[in-house]
């Protein structure tokens, strides 16, 4: 298990290096001059002398290999550089926004997994007999949930609960220390928008896995020796059905790391995605590089955590 984690860590370091290189090269190919964008933002038309002077100050006139070497040198010291727009350390800007995005992703994950496992397991238990209608309802509802894009669900939720009923705020974010009740209210709609498809995916995977495990020999043996049906289901069926659910959960969380951009825009949620979009618009290369690297690092860490959790659920995965 430890050797497997070490291999994943080494592979993650290589992956981050590749991502850093690709992002650096890609940003150099983006049309537009960061120095000109900065000076134009002041409201005046910059002269060529002013643009060149700012390029010299920012190091943009250095040869490409020197800029790349400086970029890697910053990463080696744990720095993500400074914003071209305001000179603030990129690490500080990311640290301000990242917790909000993580809160949104973790909340959506917890809600989706709990509801998805409950719905999927219940549907599997009643997939035959008089309760089969519940299984059919679940299949239809989860199909719709998976098919509806999260941004469509977000718009519908805002219109229904934010505009028409006015039960919940349609956007914004309230810090917990300022107003705990407002904090939770501001999370409900974006969490629900992200959880719609996520819950459907987990529910369908849970149902399929429970039905497959329920036909195994050890399950029939447990029933034959007189174990209670509840004990058989919880201890022998459901627990052994969670490995593929865990895999799907890890993939969905990884997708959400890069997929909250539209959701955060719809709800005016001040997370990491807004920082990234603004940086791309302003040609603020250090921020773009920093945000992408942080997302890639989180994805690597998430995969390692999933591997560890998988080992606890399935002893065969510990080697």
Structure commentary:
InterPro entries: BPD_transp_1_N, MetI-like, MetI-like_sf. It is found in: Cell membrane. α5 packs antiparallel against α6. The chain is mainly alpha-helical. Helix content is 76%, strand content 0%. The chain contains 13 helices and no strands. It folds into 2 domains: 89 residues, no CATH class; 224 residues, MetI-like (MetI-like fold), CATH 1.10.3720.10.
Short summary:
With 319 residues, the chain is mostly helical. The protein contains 13 helices and no strands. The longest helix is centred in the middle third of the chain and has 36 residues.
Features:
single chain; about 325 residues; mainly alpha; MetI-like fold; 2 domains; about 75% helix; about 0% strand; MetI-like_sf; membrane; transmembrane helix; transport
List the helices and strands and how they pair.
Blueprint: H1 2-29, H2 34-40, H3 48-58, H4 64-76, H5 90-125, H6 132-147, H7 150-164, H8 180-213, H9 217-224, H10 229-259, H11 261-266, H12 272-281, H13 285-313
Helix pairs in contact: 1-13, 2-3, 5-6, 5-8, 5-10, 5-13, 6-8, 7-8, 8-10, 9-10, 10-13, 12-13
Subcellular location: Cell membrane
InterPro entries: BPD_transp_1_N, MetI-like, MetI-like_sf
Transmembrane segments: 9-30, 102-126, 138-162, 182-203, 245-267, 287-313
Order of helix and strand elements from N to C terminus? HHHHHHHHHHHHH
- So, the CATH homologous superfamily of the largest domain? MetI-like
Tally of domains: 2
Could you say which overall geometry the principal axes of the C-alpha atoms support?
Answer: globular
Which CATH class of the largest domain?
A: Mainly Alpha
Radius of gyration: 24 Å
Q: Give the CATH topology of the largest domain.
A: MetI-like fold
Bin the helical content: over 70%
Q: Characterize the biggest β-sheet.
A: none
Instruction: State the low-pLDDT regions, or none.
Output: none
């Amino acid at each position: 298990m430890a050797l497997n984690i070490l291999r994943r860590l080494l592979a993650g370091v290589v992956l981050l290096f590749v991502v850093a290189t690709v992002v650096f090269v890609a940003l150099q190919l983006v049309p537009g001059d960061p120095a000109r964008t900065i000076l134009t933002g002041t409201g005046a038309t910059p002269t060529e002398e002013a643009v060149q002077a700012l390029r010299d100050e920012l190091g943009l006139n250095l040869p490409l290999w020197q800029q790349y070497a400086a970029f890697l040198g910053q990463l080696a010291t744990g720095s993500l550089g400074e914003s071209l727009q305001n000179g603030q350390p990129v690490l500080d800007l990311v640290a301000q926004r990242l917790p909000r995005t993580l809160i949104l992703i973790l909340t959506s994950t917890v809600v989706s997994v709990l509801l998805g496992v409950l719905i999927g397991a219940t549907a599997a238990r009643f997939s035959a007999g008089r309760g089969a209608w519940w299984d059919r309802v679940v299949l239809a509802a989860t199909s719709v949930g998976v098919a509806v894009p999260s941004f469509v669900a977000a718009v519908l939720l805002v219109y229904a609960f934010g505009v028409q009923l006015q039960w919940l705020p349609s956007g914004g974010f309230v810090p917990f220390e300022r107003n705990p009740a407002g904090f939770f209210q501001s999370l409900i709609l974006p969490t629900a928008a992200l959880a719609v498809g996520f819950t459907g995916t987990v529910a369908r995977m849970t149902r399929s896995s429970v039905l497959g495990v329920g036909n195994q020999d050890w399950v029939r043996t447990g029933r034959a020796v007189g174990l209670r049906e509840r004990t058989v289901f919880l201890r022998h069926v459901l627990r052994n059905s969670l490995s593929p659910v865990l895999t799907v959960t890890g993939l969905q969380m990884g997708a959400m790391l890069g997929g909250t951009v539209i959701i955060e825009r719809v709800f005016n949620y001040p997370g990491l995605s807004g920082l990234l979009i603004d940086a791309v618009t302003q040609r603020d290369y250090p921020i773009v590089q920093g945000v992408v690297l942080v997302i890639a690092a989180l994805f690597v860490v998430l995969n390692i955590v999933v591997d560890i959790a998988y080992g606890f659920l399935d002893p065969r995965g510990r080697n």
